[in-house]
Write a structure and sequence with these properties.
Elements: H1 2-8, H2 11-31, H3 35-43, H4 49-69, H5 74-80, H6 82-101, H7 104-124, H8 135-153, H9 157-166, H10 171-195, H11 201-209, H12 211-224, H13 230-254
Helix pairs in contact: 2-3, 2-12, 3-4, 3-13, 4-10, 4-11, 5-10, 6-8, 6-10, 7-13, 8-9, 9-10
Length: 255
């Protein structure tokens, strides 16, 4: 589906898709996270959400892999993510089934609601603190709903990030667990989409090639990192994401 979608679209649409990936990489270069939050609303203006989710799968894996492996002790980190992964696996299966089954307009409505919800929660930045006895059930719950969002809108991360912060993770510890989770969830997303009749390994190759514009954007963002206050930039981006989510809702209801 993905390679067919890009093949039949005019060159201007393909160029817009590439620009969207560069913009998403630019955000990741500045604040370290948030690529799908920017990429999905931009991409969905030019291609359908199913193709957008497939296109983002490999860049999500490959762009987060260095951070996931940084500092070693990856096996131990994976064990700490066990509650989240236990919930994420069935959630992602359910999310992908919904993505492949629902109508395009319904997918836009769901993605719009997800974008607005994630952006609002991130802007409000609730200071949650989990008690030790709640870490396991909360991890499974956040992983499950994060998996559903990952399957529907390629955004498995934001809910799980809230859980990791509530566990008390900060700095490199947070970045490592968050990146490792994204590598695992995005890898499973790519496998599930490829296993369906709507996508093929050629689509995986296209998704892998999409890493190039993401990396170009990341390099530009990293050079700008010291010139822009990350929190200010992040808030401006999230406000734009809320607007993009509202536009997706409008297209879903009235498009």
């Amino acid at each position: 589906m993905l390679i067919h979608t890009l093949h039949v679209e005019p060159a201007s649409i393909v160029a817009a898709v590439i620009f969207s990936l560069i913009a998403a990489g630019f955000l990741k270069g500045i604040i370290g996270v948030g690529m799908p939050v920017v990429a999905l609303p931009l991409l969905s203006l030019f291609i359908d959400i199913k193709s957008a989710a497939m296109l983002l799968s490999m860049p999500l894996i490959l762009s987060n892999l260095p951070q996931a492996l940084e500092g070693g002790k990856t096996g131990r980190c994976l064990m700490q993510l066990t509650p989240v992964l236990l919930g994420m696996i069935p959630g992602l299966f359910l999310g992908v089934r919904l993505l492949l089954a629902i109508d395009a307009s319904v997918a836009k409505i769901i993605a719009g609601l997800v974008l607005i919800g994630v952006a609002c929660v991130t802007l409000l930045a609730p200071k949650l603190a989990l008690q030790s006895r709640l870490v396991l059930p909360a991890g499974i719950a956040f992983g499950f709903f994060g998996g559903i969002l990952g399957g529907i809108a390629a955004m498995a991360g934001p809910l799980v990030f809230i859980y990791l912060l509530a566990k008390g993770l900060r700095g490199q510890a947070f970045t490592k667990e968050a990146s490792l989770y994204l590598v695992v969830s995005s890898g499973l997303l790519a496998l599930l989409l490829t296993a369906s009749s709507q996508f093929s390994w050629l689509d995986v190759a296209v998704s892998t090639a999409a890493l190039l514009p993401v990396v170009l954007g990341m390099q530009a963002g990293q050079r700008m990192r010291d010139r822009i206050a990350p929190e200010t930039f992040k808030k401006l981006v999230l406000i734009a994401v809320i607007a993009a989510g509202a536009e997706l809702l409008r297209h879903g209801f009235f498009g």
